[in-house]
Write a structure and sequence with these properties.
411 residues, alpha/beta, Rossmann fold, Arc Repressor Mutant, subunit A, five-stranded mixed beta sheet, flat, Xylose operon regulatory protein
Length: 411
């Protein structure tokens, strides 16, 4: 490992294992221009660590920095083999260009063209958030964004498209850039407060990321707007500490930052070995939603259907059938099917299958459990039936789904 020197502020990455069969001279030197100040970026670093533990180690240089910080001083004269960077400022873009090294960008800003790019899939993030709110019966949706960021613009665009397709009434708050001269948080908070106050209720709101979600919840508390009954809020990034500090705790879409970092490291490794160029774009889908109190509500006037939805959500993976749902609500099968279809836009059986499939997909991605164990934990009768149902639902086999979507998460 390189030795830390106070005058260049670069430190070797402790996540890398030393392979004594290789000399330091044979190792590739890689710089990580990634901030260490937020959960998303730290997830990228975890993915890079995982890739390193499975392959030939690099000598890695990383400096402690925040989002939007100036490039570290040591990078200007650094002689290495490749870079993984969150290129979010012109200064970082300039430094990266001047190195003439293989680079993988893990930012949505796209300040340096014609280089490979690995990022979260914002269409899928928006789809999950919209689906989450629509499934809870919200017919009015809103998006609270920060348009200075590409990822916020893309999430707003896709969220708007999905809300429109579902026939939902839609509203948008476009925040002002914190990086503009004259920006005032007090003035911005007044704008946000007025917007929230004027929104029709009940309404489901997607915040472009968790920090904006926290601001929304603070404004709701100040205005005495009941969350989630009058306004349900969902963020993005699943910054666990921030989400739990919110009142009430914030639901959030979970980007697969581990996989994003892993694939960025894999792509850079290929570029350094082949001495080639690439403009490849890899978009990594989110891994799910962390459901917390800020969206734990069904915005439906039909108490019986709300009870049915809660019963299904709590028991779908225990092998229940529609007959069991009928025991939990005072409705005939015909009336349950009719009212459920009208309000939820699918049948009770389809809702049971949807929740089971979500559990199965999560277990395939995140565990080493056998197919038989996943079958049992997802509420299916036997592995053969599960495999057929999974293929019909996901258009691929459980084995292929796991192979495509799962990465090693060993510590």
């Amino acid at each position: 490992m390189p030795v830390w020197q106070p005058n260049h502020f670069a430190t070797p990455f402790r996540g890398c294992h030393v392979n004594h069969s290789k000399t330091l001279q044979n190792r590739k030197s890689v710089a990580l221009l990634i901030e260490t100040s937020n959960a998303y970026a730290r997830g990228l670093l975890d993915g890079i660590i995982a890739y390193q533990r499975e392959h030939d180690p690099w000598s890695i240089y990383v400096g402690e920095q925040g989002r939007g910080a100036q490039p570290p001083l040591w990078i200007k004269n650094w002689k290495g083999d490749g870079i993984i960077a969150r290129i979010e400022t012109d200064a970082i873009a300039t430094v990266v260009r001047r190195t003439h090294l293989p680079v993988v960008d893990v930012s949505a800003a796209r300040l340096v063209k014609n280089i490979p790019w690995v990022e979260t899939d914002d269409r899928e993030i928006a789809r999950l958030a919209a689906q989450h709110l629509i499934e809870r019966g919200f017919e009015k949706l809103a998006f609270c964004g920060e348009p200075q960021f590409n990822w916020s613009q893309w999430r707003q665009q896709h969220f708007t498209e999905m809300a429109t397709e579902e026939g939902c009434e839609f509203f948008v708050f476009e925040g002002k850039s914190r990086f503009n001269n004259g920006y005032s948080w007090n003035a911005e908070r007044r704008r946000l407060k007025k917007w929230v106050q004027n929104l029709p209720k009940p309404i489901g709101v997607m915040a472009c990321y968790d920090f904006t979600g926290q601001q929304l919840l603070d404004v709701c508390r100040e205005l005495e707007i009941a969350v989630p009954e009058q306004m349900a809020v969902i963020g993005v990034d699943n910054d666990v500490r921030l989400c739990r500090l919110c009142t009430p705790p914030l639901s959030s879409v979970i980007p697969d930052t581990h996989r994003t970092g892993y694939q960025a490291a894999q792509l850079l490794d290929q570029l350094m070995q082949e001495s080639g160029e690439s403009e490849e774009c890899i978009l990594v889908p989110p891994s799910g939603i962390a459901e917390r109190q800020s969206s734990d509500v069904y915005a439906l006037d039909d108490i019986d259907i709300v009870s049915a939805l809660r019963f299904i959500r709590e028991n779908a993976c225990k092998g229940i059938s529609v007959a069991d749902v009928l025991k939990a609500v005072p409705l005939s099968r015909r009336m349950l099917e009719h009212r459920f279809q009208k309000l939820v836009r699918r049948t009770p059986h389809a809702e049971i299958i949807r929740i089971r499939m979500e559990r199965a997909c999560r277990l395939l991605r995140e565990t080493d459990l056998s197919l038989a164990e996943i079958t049992s934990r997802s509420g299916f009768a036997n592995p053969d039936y599960f495999s057929v149902a999974f293929k019909n639902y996901m258009e691929t086999t459980p084995r292929n789904y796991r192979k495509k979507n799962r990465l090693s998460r060993r510590n």
